[in-house]
Design goal:
Radius of gyration of chain B: 22 Å
Number of helices of chain B: 3
Number of domains of chain B: 2
Number of strands of chain B: 5
Helix content of chain B: 40-55%
Radius of gyration of chain A: 18 Å
Strand content of chain B: 15-25%
Strand order of the largest sheet of chain A: 1-2
Strand content of chain A: under 5%
CATH architecture of the largest domain in chain B: Alpha-Beta Complex
Shape of chain A: globular
Largest interface: A-B, 33 and 26 residues
Structural class of chain B: alpha+beta
Number of domains of chain A: 1
Structural class of chain A: mainly alpha
Largest sheet of chain B: 5 strands, antiparallel
CATH class of the largest domain in chain B: Alpha Beta
Mean pLDDT of chain A: 87
Oligomer: heterodimer
Chain lengths: 197, 177
Amino acid sequence: MKNLFREFLKGIIKENPTFVLALGLCPTLAVSVSLINGLGMGIAATFVLLGSNIIIALIKNTIPERVRIPCYIVVIATFVTITELIMKAYSPALNRSLGIYVPLIVVNCIVLGRAEAYASKNTAVNSFFDGLGMGVGFTLALLLISGIREFLGTGKLFNHILFKGFEPAFVFGMPSGALLIIGLLLGSFNLLKNKKT
Amino acid sequence: MKEMVRYGLTLALICVSASASLAVVNSLTKSKIIEQAKIEEEASLKEVLKDAQKFEEIKLGDEVLFYKAFDKDNKFIGAAFKASGKGYSSVVETMVGMRKDGVITAIKVLSQNETPGLGARIVEPSFTGQFSDKNIEGLSDVQAITGATISSRAVIESIKKKAREIKKLLASESVSQ
């Protein structure tokens, strides 16, 4: 049990996909303009990670080594399409604002990365917790970045104006601002890690 | 050779089960997705033409060209239509309500993915409100948003173009009747 908890926890800080592994930065840059987008993207990616990690861990012994990548991609693409259909049915507004980045979860390197690095070598239960941890870590990272960007770029959080008289700096709403924020956060993560050791 | 067959079969098996599960999910969500689109469409129609009670789709083939709006006495009062134009980073789609004399009642941005804080402000009432009670030929008075000229222009131009088309259609229709 303790072991499983550790599998879960490592995705959040020690091996955070965004800040430590630096994976999946493309969707991170693109969707982190507002908290609601960040949250939606995080949940969608977590769902895909969980599904693909479990299935791949279950069928890992039947997949021939040389065609494993196409097999993984088919599994991942299936879960992404399921996620997209569910989003369209129950939250069309969110689906529209995430746009092309929902189908692009297929090529999100966090998902394929975990399939290749973890799920193909571990049991389904362990892979479930690994996927959950990575998904939560990705979601938290997205929330942190999009929270900072939404506040500095538009003066709002979750589309609500926090206080009057704040003059937003538009640059944070744009890709250049996203790069700045992610760079600074990556740097501070490294600083914290180096201090510990 | 034997190996190749095994690879192919495994991959085929995975693909078959993937498509099977997708077919199931699709059949479960299909009606819901269509229903959601319909609800959204109706809500936005009501929003741009508040006086209208009934809308009638005018179709060309499978595509809905515009909606004819009727008030509670079943009198024809105007039309609602969708306009879309290329903005700065996305296609901006708007729903427009127009009275039969060519005056816009209201507009609503249906979808956009412009820069937050700049272009995305085209959804705010301070911008969309400017369209209300303006003739379609007088849209050049609409103030573009500072720093978001491209997004603002996309909305104005797409509405102007589509509105002219619809007005022509309406005119030719009333002649033929």
